[in-house]
Amino acid sequence: MPALTAPYPAARFRRARKSPAIRALMQENAVTVGDLIWPVFLTEGDGVEEPVPSMPGVVRYSVDRVVEAAKAAADLGIPAICLFPYTPLDKRTRDCAEAWNPENLTNRAIRAIKAARPELAVMTDVALDPYNIDGHDGFVVDGEVLNDETVEALVRQTLSQAEAGADIIGPSDMMDGRIGAMRGALESAGHHNVLILSYAAKYASAFYGPFRDAVGASGALQGDKKTYQMNAGNSDEALRLVTRDVGEGADWVMVKPGMPYLDICSRVKRELQVPTFAYQVSGEYAMIRAAAQNGWIDGDKAMAESLLCFKRAGCDGILTYFAPDMARLLA
Ligand code: PBG
């Protein structure tokens, strides 16, 4: 493309930055509250709001309290909330049966939130790590994370969440073939309108540390997740995974983590034109919060800038622990 610009001084780029009014007219991308999905953590009990030390400002909610939090989010105009359970240790087993218990924390929270605020979309996490004794997303036998056996369990977990009323299913496990299996099971069970937001390009990342604390999986985790999550050095592979997952029936796809992977968001959106979401993960949130608490950066400005950059990269939406703070800033 030819450079459509005149030589200086006919072209002065600073003209278009001269005032807030001119800058507003010139702005190409913006964050709206409709872009935000708010991830929240669940815990057993009543009236509980338990701080997560590695995520300042984030708490684990008991079911009664997450309903209040969900109402507040809906009142702010946030379209969706995403649930992650801290499963009690005595309910974590080798067979992960709690994952598809209709009365597990997630399923009780889905029903309570949908009863209180039917218009708020509820997203869930599909993976075995909150239920597993070893912190892995799938069944482990002799040190190997089994693929096909895990997919069968993920399908059961998916159906129990759809049955409870989940709007969006979010498989974060990175097993092969799970999207097709889940989509087939949802169709057979009559859940035609349940969306699948596939964690398609999910990288093996150091930025998940605080999340693993929040769901109580960090102490348990044996080794790493590199046999199923992606290598941070890869980019073409992300496009193959997105293509594969959409082909198997994913409605939307996710890139995760977010800020260090904006190039991936951009390639997915521009080369494949699929609805693209990014997950600004726990470690990204913790970095911004920690620096702000130390007075090293302006927390609100860094939050707003980080979220705007996802839009510039082409994302249609962002999962972020900042969702309520950002929604209040936009209000
Ligand atoms: C696991 C899962 C993880 C996150 C969401 N689902 C962690 C992992 O893969 O170990 C991370 C989210 C975050 O860091 O905010 N199924």
How would you describe this structure to a colleague?
One of its GO terms (biological process) is protoporphyrinogen IX biosynthetic process. One of its GO terms (cellular component) is cytosol. One of its GO terms (molecular function) is zinc ion binding. It catalyses: 2 5-aminolevulinate = porphobilinogen + 2 H2O + H(+). Belongs to the ALAD family. This protein has an eight-stranded parallel beta barrel, surrounded by nine helices. β8, α5 (178-188) and β9 form a beta-alpha-beta unit. It is built from eleven helices and twelve strands. The chain has one domain (30-330): Aldolase class I (TIM Barrel, Alpha-Beta Barrel). With 331 residues, the protein is α/β, with parallel strands linked by helices. The protein starts with 19 loop residues before the first helix and ends with a helix. The longest helix has 17 residues, at 148-164. The model has no long low-confidence stretch (mean pLDDT 97). α7 (236-248) packs across α8 (262-272). It has helices at residues 20-26, 63-75, 105-116, 148-164, 178-188, 209-214, 236-248, 262-272, 282-293, 299-312, 323-330, and strands at residues 36-42, 49-51, 59-61, 80-85, 121-126, 140-141, 144-145, 168-171, 195-202, 252-256, 276-280, 317-320. Ligand PBG is lined by residues 125, 127, 129, 137, 172, 208, 211-212, 225, 281-282. Ligand PBG binds next to α6.
CATH-defined fold name: TIM Barrel
| The CATH architecture | Alpha-Beta Barrel
**Radius of gyration of CA atoms, rounded to a whole number:** 20 Å
The CATH homologous superfamily name equals Aldolase class I
Shape: globular
User: In percent, how helical is the residue content?
Assistant: 25-40%
Q: Please report the first level of CATH classification, the CATH class.
A: Alpha Beta
The class by helix and strand makeup works out as: alpha/beta
Number of distinct beta strands: 12
What proportion strand?
Answer: 15-25%
Overall structural domain count? 1
Placed side by side, the strands forming the largest sheet appear as 1-4-5-8-9-10-11-12
Which ligands, by name, code or SMILES, are bound?
Answer: ligand PBG
| End-to-end C-alpha gap | 39 Å
The whole-number mean of residue pLDDT values reads 97
